[in-house]
């Protein structure tokens, strides 16, 4: 598995609503006894860094709360990180990550989980872009007659 592929699905899972993720993932989850929790959901702070001008020197922008969880399913280790304090969301991401790494589970989860979430995320971003474009204000300067 490529690192970029895993990064993509972890990002997609983190940007999806927890309720929708639970709905799509529920039928693919093993029984609770088959999930070994290495770290149940824990909330903490992470320092965000910025760069001057986007590429200059780094500076501390501020702190953000994040929640993380880790589990093991059938020998596959899954990790979940989410912005905020939603422990259930982080645990769902960890479970999905462990299942997606298993070659037997990846194809059905690709079709039943990742593709619908990707389409919904694209639709939300499109709607947000349209809303921003609708409120765009263009300024211009009129030259006084000379």
Automatic annotation (TrEMBL):
InterPro entries: Phosphonate_metab_PhnG (IPR009609). Keywords: Lyase. GO terms for molecular function: lyase activity. GO terms for biological process: organic phosphonate metabolic process; organic phosphonate transport. This is Phosphonate C-P lyase system protein PhnG. It comes from Aquitalea palustris. The gene is phnG.
């Amino acid at each position: 598995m490529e690192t970029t592929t895993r990064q993509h699905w972890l990002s997609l899972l983190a940007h999806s609503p927890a309720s929708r993720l639970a709905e799509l993932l529920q039928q693919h989850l093993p029984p609770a006894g088959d999930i070994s929790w290495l770290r149940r959901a824990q909330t903490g702070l992470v320092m965000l860094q910025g760069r001057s001008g986007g590429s200059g020197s780094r500076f501390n922008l501020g702190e953000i709360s994040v929640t993380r969880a880790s589990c093991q399913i059938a020998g596959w280790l899954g990790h979940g990180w989410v912005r905020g304090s939603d422990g259930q969301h982080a645990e769902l991401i960890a479970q999905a990550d462990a299942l997606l790494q298993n070659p037997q589970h990846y194809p059905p989860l690709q079709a039943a989980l990742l593709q619908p979430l990707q389409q919904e995320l694209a639709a939300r971003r499109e709607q947000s872009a349209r809303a921003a474009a609708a409120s765009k204000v263009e300024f211009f300067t009129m030259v006084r007659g000379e």
